[in-house]
Predict the structure.
Amino acid sequence: LAKTTQPISMDSYEGQEVNITCSHNNIATNDYITWYQQFPSQGPRFIIQGYKTKVTNEVASLFIPADRKSSTLSLPRVSLSDTAVYYCLVVLRSNDYKLSFGAGTTVTVRA
Amino acid sequence: EPEVTQTPSHQVTQMGQEVILRCVPISNHLYFYWYRQILGQKVEFLVSFYNNEISEKSEIFDDQFSVERPDGSNFTLKIRSTKLEDSAMYFCASSLPGQNTDTQYFGPGTRLTVL
């Protein structure tokens, strides 16, 4: 499984855009980049997944450069309720579907 | 939107006792998982289950742990003889891997406290 590295924490203010960059230097050809969000005392929640270029949904955007060795999760106009831990995972889409979570990035949004 | 449910939300038990944690995965999903998260630590994979058998398990999932899908809806995790270090949040997840997605949907968790 490709190892991921992301910042331990980030602080932001309401209404700002938050960008979390994750590095995954040894990502393999068949790996996908997936982000999950976790609020305290809750289970992780899927945010977005991508393979290359840009993916956007109603919650976030995911930017993946051509070499795929890093990715950036972008949360537009965060609110206090976006305070959570954000996990970057590299997932091999094959018969092995287990998720390996790292420490994640704790994003704190202040008023 | 369909969701994974787990019961109980909090279980307190004495060391050495057996506990069964219950999960109801999303109805059309085929893969089921258990993860745990010790307080302040990362989410750890325990086991995956497909087609009525374990497909993968981690080193944590030793002989004290077992999983079962006793009927068409429930998925259970049993800890035979609990230890203090089993105290954690236990999350069930399910997925329906397909061509374009293999998103795992997590339940709200069961907080297990072993005294």
In short: Residues 19 and 109 of chain B are 15 Å apart (CA to CA). Chain B has a mean pLDDT of 93. Chain B has no helices and eleven strands.
